[in-house]
Amino acid sequence: MKYVKCISLFIVYPLLVLGIGFYTGVKYSHFFYPDDGVKEKEGISMESSFEGNLQDGQASAQSGDSGTAQAETGQAEGKEELPALPERLNGDGAEEVMVSAETLCVDTKYVLEETDILYHTVVETTWRLPDKYVGMDREQFLQAMEVYEAFPPLSELERGFVGLEVLSFSRERVVVRMDYKFVQPSSSFYLAVYDNEVVVYLEDMKTVYIETDIQLDSLPAHLQQNIIDMMWIRDEEELYSFLENYSS
């Protein structure tokens, strides 16, 4: 009997220890390594969430593109619906484009019609547009011409300039008529003073013939007073003799 009891204790005790160890191992395994089924469920849930977010983002992007396309279409339609610029009629009944669209450029043809108002002849010449007029619109150009007419260069006065008129204005071509009472041959002359310089007038006492560089205060006193009072010169020989004697 003692032998049988010893054998039973020898067998039961190891089995008990083995069972406790197995149970402990299973518990630790569940603690450190959760059930694979749970992981799979969580993975599926995360995938579904990611796909849902991706689809939402694509839908938002498509919606944004659609909105942008609609906005661009609206802008294009808006541009198409803008009314055409109105046209005005000038005093002669010719069509005139809006001033803001008509400005002179370097390629604009500058046409001058020089008219002799005594003999009613016209000489037309085409020039390169002066740089000072480039970029001007109609109103600015008309103002510049008014200033030119009011204060013409002395060289123009010597030719007999009396006035001008702008006949047409466009980006391609501008036409200006210059009116002259051209200098006629003169048998006598007058000496006068302008800005302390001696000026030679024709016998009409209005048309400038020569602008000299002779300073009035450089002449003898008796000549100064005579010139101030419009000194008469009999002919060209006497005129050129005076110029030779007193020119510097």
Strand adjacency order, main sheet: 4-3-6-5
Instruction: Name the assembly state.
Output: single chain
Structural class: alpha+beta
Low-pLDDT stretches are: 36-51, 64-100
Please give a structural write-up:
There is one protein chain. Residues 36-51 and 64-100 have low confidence and may be disordered. This protein is an alpha+beta fold. It has six helices and ten strands.
Short description:
The chain is α+β, with helices and mostly antiparallel strands and 248 residues long. Helix content is 46%, strand content 24%.
What attributes does this structure have?
4-stranded antiparallel sheet; single chain; 4-stranded mixed sheet; 248 residues; alpha+beta
Q: How do the strands and helices of this protein lay out in sequence?
A:
Elements: H1 2-32, H2 36-80, E1 88-89, E2 95-96, E3 109-116, E4 121-128, H3 138-150, H4 154-159, E5 161-169, E6 173-180, E7 189-194, E8 197-202, E9 208-215, H5 221-228, E10 231-233, H6 236-246
Parallel strand pairs: 3-6
Antiparallel strand pairs: 1-2, 3-4, 5-6, 7-8, 7-10, 8-9
